[in-house]
Amino acid sequence: MDSSSTGSAKIPLKFELKPPPYPLNALEPVMSERTLEFHWGKHHRTYVDNLNKQISGTNLEGKSLEDVIVASYNNGDTLPTFNNAAQVWNHDFFWECMKPGGGGVPLGDLYHMIDRDFGSFQNFSDQFKKAAATQFGSGWAWLIYENEKLKIAQSPNAVNPLVWNTVPLLTIDVWEHAYYLDYQNRRPDYISVFMDQLVSWDAVSSKLEQAKKSNAAEKNA
Amino acid sequence: MAMRSLLSRKTLTSVLLSGPKSMGLGLTAAQSHRSLQTFTLPDLSYDYGALEPAISGEIMLLHHQKHHQTYITNYNKALEQLHDAMEKGDSSTVVKLQSAIKFNGGGHVNHSIFWKNLTPIREGGGEPPKGSLGWAIDTHFGSLEALIHKMNAEGAALQGSGWVWLGLDKELKRLVVETTANQDPLVTKGPSLVPLVGIDVWEHAYYLQYKNVRPDYLKNIWKVINWKYASEVYEKESS
């Protein structure tokens, strides 16, 4: 509802809170329904509501969420709308990165690229977990696609790869609100469980395919 | 007393140079280097549950025994690595360690102040400051209510993790309200700033009790703020 890059669809003036692609209790017991009720129902909802209030009547109204993020990032000198806009996007993306019965290893192209760019899936997993564990304070860890390679990145607070002009494929939220009810201070436990039981490699693979197509289209343009 | 200050403040090098035997430690140089722990978790002067209902005992226990302890553990580790790098003249490692020292050392500094900023209601928690600090607050902010309102607004607006502070600018001789990100101590906002009251607004400080409603945590924490301690610091630093 909130973004469109095709010319014909009209972008609505207000962003909406997108539900996760599964019921709030679907990730139990590793990510509790209670966590989803607060994380999606309160935190994510508040970012959406506050963003809508902030852009109402301004020239950001009617722009896609991605455009609002980039405009608000303002090359690092962020405008007040940045935090809310980026966090809306980040959380939409985060829910999509998980699924009930997730985890395991990716297949096909994604697996080969991980193998190629990190040496092995185990190496990738270790590095991703380390990035998530060492992001100090609030933030996110990412698998990104840049110059036809896979890389790992970390970002503070609301920052995301869109502002670096790279393509995010996977993220984990390491703000304390993401894990505190279920894991308290034990962020490494949360990260392990995320990798072992929550990651939707299908979602990551399809984002990779999209990224490769866009990349090819840009090159041929 | 002298021994304790040596262990906690001097570099390990000076301990080794004076010789473990002369200090009566009976340890080899290598052992004394590895077994020295520079900083330890300070005790609270109240029980974990004593700040209820403003801050739950569950939060106090986790905050003190897990979060603060982890900062100390990692701070000590970083300092030991720093010592090694300095001995080897490994400048790039010395520089690389600065962020771990700032995060974890800052976490230790800030939380050590925080525990003293809090006290049970029956020990005077929430009682408004009298004397020179009370007067200074009225002068600079108009009233204690105005100060609290300002700190709560800035604390609520802080994006991500950090602290909101009431500080004394020793040079300008005035009170300030400041925020710092992550575990940056107040002094990172100005070298002449002295912390009087710090409020932790990292989510771990309130989440189990207040969830996403940080403003409710901020409203309630004033009931257990130890203004006596803040006044003592103010009087000492403004003399």
From TrEMBL, chain A:
It catalyses: 2 superoxide + 2 H(+) = H2O2 + O2. Its cofactor is Fe cation. Keywords: Chloroplast, Iron, Metal-binding, Oxidoreductase, Plastid. The keyword Iron applies. Gene3D superfamilies: Fe,Mn superoxide dismutase (SOD) domain, Iron/manganese superoxide dismutase, C-terminal domain. InterPro entries: Mn/Fe_SOD, Mn/Fe_SOD_BS, Mn/Fe_SOD_C, Mn/Fe_SOD_N, Mn/Fe_SOD_N_sf, SOD_C_sf. It is found in: Plastid, Chloroplast. SUPFAM superfamilies: Fe,Mn superoxide dismutase (SOD), C-terminal domain, Fe,Mn superoxide dismutase (SOD), N-terminal domain. Mn(2+) binds at residues 39, 91, 173, 177. GO terms for molecular function: metal ion binding; superoxide dismutase activity. Residues 14-99 form the Manganese/iron superoxide dismutase N-terminal domain. Residues 108-206 form the Manganese/iron superoxide dismutase C-terminal domain. GO terms for biological process: response to light stimulus. It is an enzyme of class 1 (oxidoreductase). Its EC number is 1.15.1.1. The keyword Iron applies. GO terms for cellular component: chloroplast nucleoid. Belongs to the iron/manganese superoxide dismutase family. Destroys radicals which are normally produced within the cells and which are toxic to biological systems. This is Superoxide dismutase. It comes from Acacia crassicarpa.
From TrEMBL, chain B:
Residues 38-118 form the Manganese/iron superoxide dismutase N-terminal domain. It catalyses: 2 superoxide + 2 H(+) = H2O2 + O2. It is found in: Mitochondrion matrix. Residues 129-232 form the Manganese/iron superoxide dismutase C-terminal domain. Mn(2+) binds at residues 63, 111, 200, 204. InterPro entries: Fe/Mn_Superoxide_Dismutase (IPR050265), Mn/Fe_SOD (IPR001189), Mn/Fe_SOD_BS (IPR019833), Mn/Fe_SOD_C (IPR019832), Mn/Fe_SOD_N (IPR019831), Mn/Fe_SOD_N_sf (IPR036324), SOD_C_sf (IPR036314). It comes from the Eukaryota. Its cofactor is Mn(2+). Its main location: mitochondrion. Gene3D superfamilies: Fe,Mn superoxide dismutase (SOD) domain, Iron/manganese superoxide dismutase, C-terminal domain. Keywords: Manganese, Metal-binding, Mitochondrion, Oxidoreductase. One of its GO terms (molecular function) is manganese ion binding. Its EC number is 1.15.1.1. One of its GO terms (cellular component) is mitochondrial matrix. SUPFAM superfamilies: Fe,Mn superoxide dismutase (SOD), C-terminal domain, Fe,Mn superoxide dismutase (SOD), N-terminal domain. Homotetramer. Destroys superoxide anion radicals which are normally produced within the cells and which are toxic to biological systems. Destroys radicals which are normally produced within the cells and which are toxic to biological systems. Belongs to the iron/manganese superoxide dismutase family. This is Superoxide dismutase. It comes from Acacia crassicarpa (northern wattle).
